[in-house]
């Protein structure tokens, strides 16, 4: 049984049995790839109960008993309460007290600035970058999402392959990052985008999330899927 089945978690397209993770193009049943999805923002595919507007009934409380609807960090984080629109300061740093682990889901809501050059999201382990996610809006006239890691100040091999570029200057987005034992899975606006296989195996050492460059942030939410 793969993880998606175990969780009833959205498929990445390799899991043809379905699930709730937004699918990539290999699954024709999923509505709304970013380029063709006219419902975003503001619209939800009715069939997907995990997307904004509702968590599945089985879905999770944070360890220690946070209700699923409470977007605060476990134990509470008075300095970053549930936030109204565009109220988080960028650059934004979030400590991950328990590091990264299987079934940790991070949901980020924000808006790309109108003349954005790039946005960046880093998962740090000390001074190293376990996962650098860097959508660039104009690299020699092209849009590209660069993914990489950086150990002892040395960048690793870039991953650039992707058909889609779902971010739009001036537009809001919602990003979901699901951590598994093998990879980070990233979905944008309800559509699975990519995976980044772990290069850092000590997942618990990945203890900071950093979000910066040309965006505003309205909400960053963590939860553990049951
Ligand atoms: C470099 C860039 C870094 C980082 C890296 C990723 O060219 O200066 O900020 O994005 O690529 O491989």
UniProtKB/TrEMBL annotation:
<dbReference type="GO" id="GO:2001237">
    <property type="term" value="P:negative regulation of extrinsic apoptotic signaling pathway"/>
</dbReference>
<dbReference type="GO" id="GO:0043236">
    <property type="term" value="F:laminin binding"/>
</dbReference>
<keyword id="KW-0399">Innate immunity</keyword>
<dbReference type="GO" id="GO:0030154">
    <property type="term" value="P:cell differentiation"/>
</dbReference>
<dbReference type="GO" id="GO:0002548">
    <property type="term" value="P:monocyte chemotaxis"/>
</dbReference>
<dbReference type="GO" id="GO:0048246">
    <property type="term" value="P:macrophage chemotaxis"/>
</dbReference>
<dbReference type="GO" id="GO:0008380">
    <property type="term" value="P:RNA splicing"/>
</dbReference>
<keyword id="KW-0007">Acetylation</keyword>
<dbReference type="GO" id="GO:0030593">
    <property type="term" value="P:neutrophil chemotaxis"/>
</dbReference>
<dbReference type="GO" id="GO:0090280">
    <property type="term" value="P:positive regulation of calcium ion import"/>
</dbReference>
<dbReference type="GO" id="GO:0048245">
    <property type="term" value="P:eosinophil chemotaxis"/>
</dbReference>
<keyword id="KW-0963">Cytoplasm</keyword>
<dbReference type="GO" id="GO:0050918">
    <property type="term" value="P:positive chemotaxis"/>
</dbReference>
<keyword id="KW-0391">Immunity</keyword>
<dbReference type="Pfam" id="PF00337">
    <property type="entry name" value="Gal-bind_lectin"/>
</dbReference>
<dbReference type="GO" id="GO:0005681">
    <property type="term" value="C:spliceosomal complex"/>
</dbReference>
<feature type="region of interest" description="Disordered">
    <location>
        <begin position="1"/>
        <end position="85"/>
    </location>
</feature>
<feature type="compositionally biased region" description="Polar residues">
    <location>
        <begin position="67"/>
        <end position="85"/>
    </location>
</feature>
<feature type="domain" description="Galectin">
    <location>
        <begin position="92"/>
        <end position="223"/>
    </location>
</feature>
<protein>
    <recommendedName>
        <fullName>Galectin</fullName>
    </recommendedName>
</protein>
<keyword id="KW-0508">mRNA splicing</keyword>
<keyword id="KW-0677">Repeat</keyword>
<keyword id="KW-0430">Lectin</keyword>
<feature type="compositionally biased region" description="Polar residues">
    <location>
        <begin position="12"/>
        <end position="39"/>
    </location>
</feature>
<dbReference type="InterPro" id="IPR044156">
    <property type="entry name" value="Galectin-like"/>
</dbReference>
<dbReference type="GO" id="GO:0019863">
    <property type="term" value="F:IgE binding"/>
</dbReference>
<dbReference type="GO" id="GO:0005615">
    <property type="term" value="C:extracellular space"/>
</dbReference>
<keyword id="KW-1015">Disulfide bond</keyword>
<keyword id="KW-0964">Secreted</keyword>
<keyword id="KW-0597">Phosphoprotein</keyword>
<dbReference type="GO" id="GO:0005737">
    <property type="term" value="C:cytoplasm"/>
</dbReference>
<dbReference type="GO" id="GO:0045806">
    <property type="term" value="P:negative regulation of endocytosis"/>
</dbReference>
<dbReference type="GO" id="GO:0001772">
    <property type="term" value="C:immunological synapse"/>
</dbReference>
<keyword id="KW-0539">Nucleus</keyword>
<dbReference type="GO" id="GO:0006397">
    <property type="term" value="P:mRNA processing"/>
</dbReference>
<dbReference type="GO" id="GO:0048030">
    <property type="term" value="F:disaccharide binding"/>
</dbReference>
<dbReference type="InterPro" id="IPR013320">
    <property type="entry name" value="ConA-like_dom_sf"/>
</dbReference>
<dbReference type="InterPro" id="IPR001079">
    <property type="entry name" value="Galectin_CRD"/>
</dbReference>
<dbReference type="GO" id="GO:0045087">
    <property type="term" value="P:innate immune response"/>
</dbReference>
<keyword id="KW-0389">IgE-binding protein</keyword>
<keyword id="KW-0507">mRNA processing</keyword>
<keyword id="KW-0221">Differentiation</keyword>
